[in-house]
Amino acid sequence: MAVLAPAPLPTPALRQLDPEVLAAGVAQLRAGDEALARLIDAVGPCTLTLRQDLFFALVHAIISQQISTKAKEKIVERVCALYAPAPFPMPHQLLATPDDELRVAGCSGAKVLYLKDLSARIVAGTLDLDRLPNLPDEDVIAALIGVKGIGRWTAEMLLIFSLGRLDVWPVDDLGVAVGVQRLLGLPERPKPKELRIIGERWRPYRTLVSWYLWRMPRTL
Q1: Tell me: the pLDDT tens digits for 192-202?
Q2: What is the rounded CA–CA span in Å between residue 41 and residue 128?
């Protein structure tokens, strides 16, 4: 008798930003910066995809910290499998999960603490994720950085990859710093303060610049 492979877990809903909005932003960037235009031509159209569930996006971001992409995806898959057939846990479910089960799934002790703190704040009502889409960028960041394990960079990733904000400029991101160094032919990797100044030229579409820098070909 043949053994059937387990069915893949359902994945949280994704959606792409309005292609017309993306195209308009990319066109403005191309017209205003020759070096950036070459990068855009090399990478192709921007296809920024958003994770629609904010809780899952934050869980994903916490698990992703300081590990490889391959390891991250495996741990996320194992954590989500604890709650099958649901695609991912709700805050009250994660809060009730024994720490040992999350550790066996691959989460470090620190990340278990962070995930539980995030879940506890949502369950208690001190962090209302439903309010975030209506807040300015800096207010979203301020609401999130009080959670253990969530700093400015993690909050900025939520702004980009869940809320679809178009003018986020993560100056603490290594990929952005390396990309700017290569794009502009700088002798050294720019520090956050310098990156902040450089990024002013790309307002109001700095998110799109970040997206392209993360995909810069090695041969460009």
Answers
A1: 999 999 999 99
A2: 40
Task: State the average pLDDT over residues 184-206.
Answer: 97
pLDDT-based confidence at residue 4 (cuts at 50, 70, 90): very low
What counts of helices (H) and strands (E) characterise the chain? 12, 2
> How many residues appear in the chain?
220
Does residue 220 sit in helix, strand or coil? Answer: coil
Helix, strand or coil, per DSSP, at residue 187: coil
Question: b/e per residue, 35-62, with b = 16+ CB within 10 A?
Answer: ebeebbeebeebebeebebbbbbbbbbb
Q: Which CATH class is domain 51-161?
A: mainly alpha
DSSP string covering 38-79: HHHHHH-S---EEE--HHHHHHHHHHHTTS-HHHHHHHHHHH
Extended strands (E) in the chain: 14-16, 49-51
Q: Sketch the domain layout of the chain as residue ranges.
A: 14-48+168-214, 51-161
The fold for domain 14-48+168-214 equals Endonuclease Iii, domain 2 (1.10.1670)
9-77-140 Cα angle (round to 5): 105
